[in-house]
Design brief:
Layout lengths: L8 H134 L5 H13 L1
Length: about 160
């Protein structure tokens, strides 16, 4: 093997130094600047992406805050609309109840008047029927019928006692 032959080591070391120098210069002048520019571009892109992400995060937080505020306002408006509707319905129900109570009070007064009239009429008829019945009873008992005014006076006197 020529690599292990000691007399061949000197030229091998020279060629190693020349090759190493050429490769070193190529790396320094060509490859490393390209790699450096790629790293710088990636760093710039990452920084730009981080800035964009931060900007988008802030915009998202602002949008969420605006959404929550709009939602709260909508809930407040819905609550006020519902409350206004409830109040309006309560007023309508109260007005209808008052009208119904007035109507029922009027009907109750009319019914009481009719009952009173019927009672008065019935009492007058009761007096007339009682007078007739008393006259018939007296005629059966004693055989003589009293006159209608006498029977009415007797019934009236008996009712007062």
């Amino acid at each position: 093997m020529p690599q292990l032959n000691p007399p061949d080591w000197a030229p091998q070391l020279i060629w190693l130094a020349i090759t190493f120098s050429i490769l070193y210069l190529l790396m320094k002048r060509v490859a490393l600047p390209r790699i450096g520019s790629v790293i710088e571009m990636r760093s710039a892109r990452i920084a730009s992406d981080l800035d964009s992400a931060d900007k988008l995060r802030r915009e998202t937080q602002e949008a969420i805050a605006a959404y929550e505020q709009a939602l709260a306002e909508a809930k407040a408006r819905a609550h006020s609309i519902a409350q206004a509707g409830r109040n309006r319905l309560k007023e309508e129900v109260a007005a209808e109840r008052a009208a119904l109570e007035r109507d029922l009070a009027g009907k109750a007064a009319e019914a009481e008047a009719r009952i009173h009239a019927a009672k008065t009429s019935a009492l007058k008829e009761v007096n007339a029927v009682a007078s007739e019945t008393a006259a018939k009873i007296v005629r059966r008992l004693i055989g003589i019928a009293p006159s209608p005014p006498e029977a009415a006076t007797a019934v009236a006197a008996a009712r007062k006692e």
